[in-house]
Amino acid sequence: MDWFILASKSPPPPVVLAVYLLFWFGASAALFLAGIQAYLKKKKMAGIPTIKVNAAAVGLVELSGKAKQLEKITSPISGKPCAFYRITLEKLIRGKHSHWVEMTHARLESGPFALEDESGSIVIDPKGAEVTFKKDSIQRGSKQTFPEHVQKYIQDALDNPAMRDMKYFSLSIFPDEFRITEHLVEEGDQVYVLGPAKIPEKPLPPGLTSDLIVCKAENEDFIVSDESEKSVSGRFTVSMVLGAIGAIGMVLLVAFAFASGEAVLSWVSLLLVLAVFASPFIFRSKLEKLGLFGKPKNP
After folding, report:
1. For residue 46, what pLDDT is reported?
2. Cβ(212)–Cβ(204) below 8 Å
């Protein structure tokens, strides 16, 4: 709506118009490219059948089973026993547009766990994976409102040299406010995994059926979720819809640029949009090599 209102009035100065177009172009292009990426992942998920653990071989596999502890661990925040935990700490940056920023140096994550189905068990190392675990608990407040062991966790994060990064600071007379999110995979939870199975570099714990490990590999998708395959695929469908909205937004931006009467901005915006639309085809050979666009090419 803003585009048509602005186009119907006297055009703004070229600099203002350029900033306006650049902002909306960046947002629309990001949605579009994220939609393309979601489409490729959804296509890969649909093309790989879910197999049993005892049928896993080196290469990309899709598995579904129940989480199992490799060792007894508990969440450092709630103290709950689990097979895997991920703890994130965020700080509220107050200002005209207050927002939460994750203190990435304070993220806590446990090690590998086992996935078990009726045929056996295999090790899953979710480090570096696209993890979509449900949020088990969210705590919010100033440091003093948390239990003593959580206060120590927050203080250690504040004392970390990474806190020198200015993105964690805000000018405010109010006490700092934090948000702690706990993602847990408890023993027995259903887990979906799409990722590369490899021969492990270190010996695996005894009692496992498979002698492979599913972990991060270069140029390979790696998804670990405590949702069903259908739910994970649904997330990608939503991203694809947003990508379509981004594509429409870029087309409308070009129309608005030409309606403004600024020839240079009009042609620059058109070339930028064409470059974004063409990027999946420009890099087609790389996508084919990875098996994401057509048939994989032999190395």
Report:
1. 82
2. no
